Amino acid sequence: MTDTAVPPPSVREVVAALDARYPRAWAEQWDRVGLVLGDFDTRVDQVLCVVDCVAETVEEAVAAGANLIVAHHPLLLKGVSSVAPDTYKGRIVHRLIKADIALYVAHTNADVANPGVSDALAARLGLVHTRPLVPAAPGTPAAGDGRGAGRIGDLAEAMTLADLTELAARRLPPTAAGVRAAGDPARIVRTLAVCGGAGDSFLSDAAAAGVDAYLCADLRHHPASEHLAAGGPALLDAAHWATERPWLDEVASWLRASFPVTALVSDLDTDPWTVHAVSGNKEYLT
Ligand SMILES: [Zn+2]
Question: What pTM did the predictor assign?
């Protein structure tokens, strides 16, 4: 290394920058974000960004020589009294510590950030004039500066729900689940709400916003049916991983711009669903 070369940052320095971009106070009360494990003094050359810190993405990090994983979902959300290596998560903890790979989580604090998880999703779908679906409430730590949950925006051009479903399936990272929609396939969609991850809890906000359609993940039979019966926007249900994976590109490019590090993005689909078959004799499905 020459005198002019910029030394790689420490875990401490990268964590401080991540904490400044995604303050822990912006996370929901139930959430668990920030540094999970790792040596503050380890130098960071390589970062791997993942939606889920699971055994497969940990092995990806080891193979890539990563010193830090930035994950969206918490590895340890509920209280634990043991990380013994005969448990699934315990093995992950041991593997990471032995490989000297730090683990950092930005979850609901990255959801409400601006730019945040749903901005990356909105960008994939070509939404313009985006704003929060649920602005962070005044007086809460995340309030202001366009922060909040989900995003609303306008499509570059109006299209039918059927065409929008096709577009979403093409633009989002590929998964076995793909994208399904609820509502009249011929309905014209001009304004769209999106939310990375599970979106049940914002159904009424999407209806109140008056958008034509709402795209998120993990929609369930009764909430979706009752929302539609009440005249709410059409619904698009995508794979959970696919709605949050676009954010990884944004956080990786920010890491590259902020530090002399290589920031990689995992394309390993961590959705549990691996097989999808389309039922026959539905002409609008062809
Ligand atoms: Zn999620």
Answer: 0.95
